[in-house]
Amino acid sequence: MQIELENEIKEKANYCLNCKAKPCSQKGCPLGNNIPEFIKQIKEEDYNKAYKILCETTVLSGICGRICPHNKQCQGSCVRGIKGEPVSIGNLEAFVFDKVLEDENSLLNCYNEGMQENKAYRNKKVAVIGGGPAGLTCSAFLAKNGIDVTIFEKYNYLGGLLVHGIPEFRLPKTIVNETINKILKLGIKVEYNKELGKDINLEKLVESYDAIFLGIGANVSSKMGVQGEELKGVYGGNELLEYNLHPDYEGKVVSVVGGGNVAMDCARTVKRLGAKEVNVIYRRARKQMPAEDKEVENAVNEGINFLFQNNVIEIIGKEKVEKIGLIKTDLIQKENDTRLVPVNIEGSNYIIDTDFIIMALGSTVQPFVKQLGLKTNKWGNVEVNEFYQTSNPKIYAGGDIAGVKSTVAWAAYSGREAARNILENL
């Protein structure tokens, strides 16, 4: 079985043209991973070297290789994809991590590669608040340069949405745990069960540390503002996945509103928990869905229904959800809009029965962020400059709290770049 897998991987690697222009890296990959070079090492069966190349730009390759929207990022920019199928970059990246994982020492050496004792950073301390993709990446790149890093995490585990936001069937927790363990072996300290605003005070941290990085994410589900949204049986998708406090779906009809990966994760999770029927309601067309194509295909294959070009206009019920009111939409091109805009079709209203509604329309930051004394924008995100500095030059921020694009790779990029700027300023 292992030999067959390696032969399949080599065949996929040999399909790569090793382009000198590297559009997959320079245009498609948020982290700028040297994709042709790590694939070249796969062809030569030097998996340790392939992994070391990845470690120059990322510490989350085993994760990104599995969950990134590859067709919209690296594979979407692949030259091979112009006339045929792109190179399976995600599969190759995940394989390299798994292969090196077989040798504990090799994996650790790859993480430690380039780690240095820099006299300029001796006795410098940085506090990282939040142990999600942005915080973990920031911590790793700081620690590699000899910074004394402490992560403050509100839960008793690290990983953030990698653990509680992405279901096991998409991202095995063993992969997340192995990744985190190797990052911590860089010498990073962790204080668990420390929530910002409750257990730790930002002002006191500023006094005690040379720099602060905020990477606490934004996991409060957005609402539609329609009538009936306050009824029992209406849930936020982000909270359901984070806290895992699901109602009993057995034999019930569930409606999931939204078109991103959170909506797909909710729909597929609910189906696995016994729902009789799951409907995904999206106001645009399938090709406009922000969810990764493979996630939509998986949902379809699992028997989930899709109601495209439908908009929710009302949630109906006395105390609990009973029905949902929908209206069909037309998609039109408006000036200055890059995507077709859904417009309700007058008189196309109709009603369907539903027992539960899950809102998966995006997320916002927690309200307490506005009380941190940092400048925020109209959406409540902490404002940062091109160096990921907030209005307090000693405090940096990345990931969702800073309004960074909502993918793991972009969150990791913001953490890495913030680390580089922290190092420069220190």
Brief sketch in words of this structure:
This protein is an alpha/beta fold and 426 residues long. It folds into 3 domains: 2-112, Alpha-helical ferredoxin (Fumarate Reductase Iron-sulfur Protein, Chain B, domain 2); 123-218 and 365-425, FAD/NAD(P)-binding domain (3-Layer(bba) Sandwich); 221-363, 3-Layer(bba) Sandwich (FAD/NAD(P)-binding domain), CATH 3.50.50.60. It has 15 helices and 16 strands.
Q: Can you lay out the helices and strands and say which pair or pack?
A:
Layout: H1 2-14, H2 23-28, H3 35-43, H4 47-55, H5 61-67, H6 89-101, H7 104-112, E1 125-129, H8 133-143, E2 148-152, H9 161-164, H10 173-184, E3 189-191, H11 202-208, E4 211-214, E5 220-221, E6 234-236, H12 237-243, E7 253-257, H13 261-272, E8 277-282, H14 293-301, E9 305-308, E10 310-316, E11 323-332, E12 341-344, E13 350-353, E14 356-359, E15 363-364, E16 395-397, H15 408-425
Parallel strand pairs: 1-2, 1-4, 2-3, 4-16, 6-14, 7-8, 7-14, 8-9
Antiparallel strand pairs: 5-15, 10-11, 11-12, 11-13
